[in-house]
Design brief:
Radius of gyration: 20 Å
Order of helices and strands: HEEEEEEEEHHHH
Strand order of the largest sheet: 1-4-5-8
Largest sheet: 4 strands, mixed
Number of helices: 5
Distance between the termini: 24 Å
């Protein structure tokens, strides 16, 4: 994706997909959006029916990377812990993750306008008495560390994008040299968190370097989306 794209929307989306699959060990072929953010006016509330082993959800998740995905991985922080059987033992959960597919009670709404990544169908998720069987639920603790994984794949995808987009052989070698430690570190199975920490400044400099090149003119919404990428790498 990074080698053929002419916009940063698809660079981010491809990195986001890789991050979700890597971190949550998802193997489905379709696309996925993580749903975490909420607003104070419509927080997601969960009600657990012990007799039916069903969790009922109501509320809104305020951001999806795209409403046009096969699966939404929903994160819910619980006001009251629930006890569920997981991996052949019972666990007390304070937060949960739930895969949502095309449930009619889980309504996806696409935003009419967005400031960044305009080529993606960003939106939100409205839950109206959405019932989930406990067999589909797993611990929300698994979300820990996702931010570092997301940053890593954003950096990797962006680096490949720069290498393929610059025309000068000298610049190609320059960008390739800068992203090589990231690739080598990943191949050596070094800590994702430490790789991100040690390479953030480098990738901010790469964004600034590409911003000085004429090739940026061919990238749709470069001037607005570069700001988002800089913020991701803070």
């Amino acid at each position: 994706m990074a080698s053929v794209s002419n916009n940063l929307s698809w660079i981010f989306f491809s990195a986001y997909q890789c991050a979700i699959r890597y971190h949550f060990k998802q193997k489905i072929r379709g696309t996925i959006s993580l749903a975490v953010r909420e607003t104070s006016d419509a927080p997601v509330k969960a009600t657990f029916d012990n007799k039916k082993n069903i969790l009922s959800l109501n509320g809104r998740k305020s951001w999806l990377v795209s409403t046009n995905v096969e699966m939404i991985l929903l994160f819910v922080r619980l006001k009251k812990p629930i006890e569920l059987p997981l991996n052949n033992s019972t666990h007390l959960l304070n937060s949960i993750l739930i895969p949502i597919y095309k449930e009619k009670s889980a309504i996806r709404k696409t935003f009419e306008k967005t400031r960044f990544l305009k080529n993606l169908n960003q939106g939100n998720l409205e839950l109206k008495n959405t019932e989930i069987m406990i067999e589909k639920i797993f611990s929300g603790n698994n979300i820990r560390g996702f931010g570092n994984v997301e940053q890593f794949f954003v950096m990797l995808s962006l680096g490949i994008f720069f290498v393929t987009k610059v025309k000068s052989l000298k610049l190609k070698k320059f960008f390739l040299k800068e992203i090589t430690p990231l690739v080598q570190g990943y191949s050596a199975r070094k800590s994702i968190r430490l790789l991100v920490k040690s390479n953030k400044k480098t990738f901010k400099k790469l964004i600034n370097r590409f911003d000085q090149l004429p090739e940026k003119k061919a990238i749709i919404d470069w001037n607005s989306d570069k700001v988002l990428f800089r913020n991701i790498l803070k």
